[in-house]
Every structure is written in structure tokens, then in C-alpha cells.
Amino acid sequence: MAKIKYIEHNGKVHIVEVQNGLTVMEGAIQNDIPGIDADCGGSMSCATCHVYVKEGWYDKLPKKEMGEDDMLDQAYEPNSKSRLSCQIMVSDDLDGLSVYMPEKQV
Amino acid sequence: MIKTDAVIVGAGPTGLFCAHQLGIIGLTCEIVDNLDKIGGQCIELYPDKPIYDIPAVPECTGEELTNNLIEQIKPFNFNFHLNDRVQELTNKDDNWIVKTTSGKKFQTPNVVIAGGVGSFEPRKFPTKSAEKFDGTTVLYSIKDKTIFKDKSVAIFGGGDSALDWAIELSNSSKVSLIHRRDEFRGAPASVQKIKELSKKKIINLFTKYSIKDVKGNGTLEEIEIKSEEGESKTIKTDYVLGFFGLIMQLGPIADWGLNLDKKTIPVNTENFETNKKGIFAIGDICTYPGKLKLILSGFHEGALAARGCFKYARPNEKYRFEFTTASNTIKDRLGLK
Lengths: 106, 337
Hints:
The complex is a heterodimer of chains A (about 110) and B (about 325).
Chain A (H helix, E strand, L loop, with lengths): L1 E6 L5 E6 L5 H7 L19 E4 L14 H5 L9 E3 L13 E3 L6
Parallel strand pairs in A: 1-5
Antiparallel strand pairs in A: 1-2, 3-4, 3-5
Chain B lengths: L1 E2 L3 E3 L3 H12 L5 E3 L8 H4 L5 E2 L8 E2 H12 L5 E3 L4 E7 L2 E6 L4 E4 L2 E3 L5 E4 L15 E2 L12 E5 L3 H10 L4 E6 L8 H12 L3 E5 L1 E7 L6 E6 L4 E5 L2 E4 L3 E4 L15 E2 L12 E3 L4 E2 L7 H19 L14 H6 L4
Parallel strand pairs in B: 1-9, 2-3, 2-10, 3-6, 10-22, 12-19, 13-14, 13-19, 14-15, 21-23
Antiparallel strand pairs in B: 4-5, 7-8, 8-9, 11-20, 16-17, 17-18
Helix pairs in contact in B: 1-3, 1-6, 4-5
């Protein structure tokens, strides 16, 4: 279990507990947190669950697998702290993680 | 004006199987899809990825599934209208008049929306200033490459489309290629070629840059690009091309007066009709309590929606349930002896 902080582009903060084994994307969808669309349902083929990971947390996350950066090329305004939230698996180590949502997903 | 029993919006697996079910019960249909090929997300997003949850098919790829569905509806000779998009629906007596972007018109009592998550559209530049040049000098696809001859062209993107066009256009245009990181997702041979062309100064390569602004008074004059550190550069250019892949958008479906729940259309689970008479929604685009976004659910929804269509297409006939194993009428429809 990890407490994850989702910060909408307008600054609105949502803190929810997400079970281990779910992804950060699923944590948002299950709790109706706006700003993450996840059109493809987590198969890393749409780039609509794009988030910016808070400074300091980015390097603590498991590294990107092949293909994630390719999809991020197609995200809205990606930067060096960008991840697809469907590829971040929640574990106890992620307790306190903060992610920022982009202005929009497409 | 094409008259038909049903227009299916979307040629993904759900739309294809619904067409099959319409054919089986003796109805006609026309299928419209804005991609240039049949198969929807199966073909556009994951043609090579194996699917493991199609009943009685332990494993198949998106492409194999699509090919089998096409094969299954061959006996009915239904028409596909690809590269076209249903734009407008208007009610006329007991029919819908369906207009497409290319100007085609259908008259039908039934419209089955099997649109997945919407239609695939090119992903555009995030900069507002790019909009006023959209379609003239800011482009997301190339129809006529001769317009770029002896002009300067700024190409954005790191995939095959961006790389292939950068290489091709560098023969007769001044090309700048801009990409947000050092690595490219295009084919290794193309990446190699780009690096060579950049070394020979035939292509200006800018990596770790993205678009900041598009400038010009009436006509496009220059673009500003920025690095993540905030450093910016100006490039004089006649054209800007963006190749950021495709996104799915609900598009005109949102304007048809249907009830919407986020990006999905609520339906009843008896025949998958929406709040509008004769408009059905099946597959990923529909929602109801317990909805699962599985291909197999789309098949079930399509079978029931087809029966719903029968009521409006043959108001004076009673629908008769038959099995394909037993019915000679169905065997005739399938062209079997």
C-alpha cells in the first residue's frame, strides 16, 4: 500500500491509498481522479496517462522499459520527468510519491 | 444517396462482427471508418500483439483477428468506406440521413456506433499559435510533396514518418529535424541516415528541443524552439510538419445529441440502443452497469444490436431466431449449398 499524491494541472491535490500491484494510472481511474485518461487501458499504446514525476522521486522509480519513451514522444508536452502512469507499479517503496498531471492528455 | 438497413461507424472487431450478425439475419449495411484500413485499434495500435481472450482462440494477433473477421463477412459483400468519417446525423421521418466528410450520404433506419475510443486523428502541436497556419503551412500529413521543393521545412518527431520525410525532402528542400530527445524510435537504418545527413550539414538536426512558438504575419515566417533548460532558438522556415502519431478523439459523435458519460455512450443492455431511436452503440464506446472493455463483449453487444436494427429495418416482419447450423435461409445467405 502506498499513499500517492496526484496533483491536477490547476493545482488541485488528491491523496489516495493505492494497493500494491496496481499501477499509478489504475489508482487514478479507480478513484475518479481527473487528468488521466488512459484510453488504451494500460497497454502502453496511447500516451494519455502521462504524468510528470516530482523532482527527487523520478530516479527512485523503476526504470522505463523499452517502448515507454517512444510513446512519450507522442504525449502532450513531455519533459525529462515524464512517465506513463500505467507503467509505474505501486509498491510500499512508492509511499509518498507525487505526480503532476499535464495541462491535457491529447 | 445510398439506402441501407444500417450504417456501422467503425470497422474494428466489434463493428465487423455486428456486420456479420446483420448479414446472418438478412439485413444490409455499409461500414464507415476514418482509418485507411479495416481493423480499428487491433490494426492501428497492436497488429502484432497477441490476444489471449477471444473465446475458442487461444492466441491470435490483432491482425489475424481482423483478417478472420473480414473473411467471415465476405459472403455478404458489404461495402467499406475507408478514409472517411461520419460527420452529421439528421433525422428524417423514420430514417437517419448520414453524411460523411467526403460528402457521401446514406439513408438508413439504423446507425450502429462501434467507434472504439473515437476516431484516430493526428496529434497536433500544443502551441496555440500553430492553429492559424493549420492545413496551409503547418501540416500533419503530406498529400503533395512537390509544394516543399526549394523551400525550408521544419519537421518535428522521432518516429518513422518524421525520419522518412526528413530524408526524402532533404533532396530538394532545406530540412530541419527537431526531436525532444537524443534517441529516435524510427528504423535503425533511417536513424543512421539522418545522422549522416546531419554530419554532412544537409539536414539541421536539433535534439532535446520542442516547439515553443510559430510566428508570422499572415504567412509563416519562423518558429521558435526551446530546450527543457529554457534555452530557445529561432529557425526561419516556410513549412512546419508534425509527426506525433495518432490520438483517439470522440470527434463529431459528441454533436449528435446522444447522452454521454465522459467519453462513452450509455446504452440499454437489451439491444444497445442509445437515447436516440435507431442509434445503437457497441464495443468500447458504449457503457452500462458492469461493462467490460473486451472484444468478446463487443461481439455480444453487436449480436444484440443487430436484432435491435431488425425491428426498424423490417417493421412489418417478425424476427425469427435461427441457428446457423440448422437454418437453410442462413446457409443461402452465406452462399453455402
